[in-house]
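I am still getting used to backbone structure tokens and would like to learn alongside you. Label the sequence line and the structure token line clearly, so we can match residues to local backbone shapes. Would you write everything just below, so we can both look at the same thing?
***
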Amino acid sequence: MVPQTERQVEAKRLAVARRYATLGRSITIFGLGLHIMKAKGLLLTAAMTAFFFSQPASAGVFTDEFAKCLVSSSSQDDQTQLAQWIFSAMTVHPSIQSMSKVTAEERAKVDAKTADLFVRLITKDCKSQSINALKNEGDSAMEAAFSVLGQVAMRRLMGDPQVVQSIQGFGKLMEPELKKFGKDNHLAQ
């Protein structure tokens, strides 16, 4: 495994972000690393998702095969389950708790279903790929491979028309100031 430079990691994150840029009208927003990026519709979501669920730079060929297997072996229901688990876990943070009505009982059910999902994917559906990744690339293979699955699950969730509409509303709030910033600093095209 060859360590990647910061620029290569940033390029990988931006590549993930570009995959999300498929809907809506063009807006200009800040990307990761204080870059100004032009994209469409879901770029803000992409940047956030790429940042929070990006694959570590040390992923190797076995981890990539494991990640591919996780994605191809998971159904839409599985991916929804993963997205629900991510959301449920985030709701325990003190700054978010008041915005969510997820009960401890609901969280326990989501945790149990997601644990069953992970066990199935690791020990049955992707058994040989998980073994190869762990043996050849270590424990970080799990985090990296499931990060890819998390990206796919979140992309599906964030592609929902109501979510897209909400995100576009947020983008409209930023657009005037960012256009002015771009013009004032000769960044606008």
Remarks:
- The two ends are 39 Å apart (CA to CA).
- The longest helix spans residues 161-184.
- The longest strand covers residues 26-30.
